[in-house]
Structure prediction request, 539 residues.
Amino acid sequence: MNKTAKTGLFEKYLTRGAESSIHAAYLKKYRINRILVRLTQIFLLFAFLLLWETASHKQWINQLLFSSPSEIWSLFVSMLLGGELTVHITATLLETILGFFLGTLFGTLAAVGIWWSRFVSDVVDPYLVVLNGMPKVALGPIFIVAFGGGYGAIIAMGVAISVIITTIVVYTSFREVDPNYIKLARTFGASKSQIFQKVIFPASFPTIISTLKVNVGLAWVGIIVGEFLVSKFGLGYLIIYGFQVFNFTLVYVSLFIIAICATFMYQAVVSLEKHLLKQRD
Amino acid sequence: MTDREPFIQFEQVGKTYVTLDGETTALENINFHVFRGEFVTLLGPSGCGKSTILSLLAGLIKPTGGTVLIEQKPVTSPSRKIGYMLQQDYLLNWRTIEQNILLGLEIQRQINDANREYALKLLDEMGLSDYRNYYPGQLSGGMRQRVALTRTLATRPDILLLDEPFSALDFTTRLRLEDLVVKTLRKHKKTAILVTHDISEAIAMSDRILILTGRPGQIKSEIHIPSALRDPLPFYSRDLPEFQNYFQNIWKVMNRDE
Prediction:
């Protein structure tokens, strides 16, 4: 009796919002699948952590190298309570956000400049290709000398890694706007800057937003590498420091925090994109 | 009407496009004039330079020979006297319908209460005032082209250039829109030049038809449409017996050299 009431309730939950019995069956199938996917994901995570913990505990794997979830957790909690973790997280987050923001801004501005003059775009084309092909991380030593061994060099790395690709992608999207839109604006007597403001820029806006998603990832690469090279703070620094003193638990703590922060930043850009582009088809 | 001086004149106009591969003559020795309030159609096969004539008149490109005059003055750059309707609506999908119809006024820095009100009144005439806060993606093809017409008329041009504005629409929508365009242009006393390859559309809508040949484009023949066909709206003139005669004549002229 009790059991049927319960399944009835679950059934109701699975078919909520259904308009007909066919729709209900479809919704039920879809939702059961969703629930199964989630449950499997959670199961895999716990299984992995449990296996890791057991393997480390029973010394199947090298404890020094692989640490264990419980040790990582307790180090995380003690660093968090000690307040030092906040300093590192804040430093890296600020650097990443700034590098990401400046890289996107400079890249977009460069793209505008190149779009403005066909001559300039013809001239800079081979240079862009070379700069794009070059691994920006290799510029690290130059940044350290140029900007000093602090935040400057780290942010420069974050900017360098995203600015060229942003320029190329955004410029390409400017060029790909249907020329008939430009013709339309010209029939009203639009100037070049009006064509840019009213047509080219808003039409390329979705591309610019989607480069943001790429740049979030690139900024993290740039900042972490930058911190490897010079810093005294930050999550990248914690990784290098942990490696130098052979405290791999510290390395894992830092890695997990980076993974979580990067995911949140990426999700923030995705929801920004959804919000800004919701009116377009 | 015909003894007044011409509003638009093409004198010995030629246009040659130059590319790395060489040159292509799009138009040669084009001579015609249009009077104020007239509806003239340029009829010809695709690639005969019809659209080039409109671009020259709109001041988007310069002729390589001859002169284009509006009110006796040579055209050198885009003018506010001209409204241009393209083959597709080209509405900006990030703007609402209201923002779309104000685009021309915005570019010409003519946004004020009176002009905004005029644009909204035009939108109402098109039967679309309920949609002013919609986005183009939410409208049908015919509605979108009506919005494009409103956008063109909102800057109060004297001359309307219609570059196959119905070609992307289905037949029913097209017939309805032909009537609406003719009605609106008559009401607002506009001069219009339509470019099309559709013979029926040309007869149904215009006062006068100029038939062009292709490559390089030249005017082959001029046909005056009698008032019996001119006066009714396009949908009704398509039903009149004279309509078929004109269709046959034009068909013969167009196929004479093919």
Observations:
- The two ends of chain A are 51 Å apart (CA to CA).
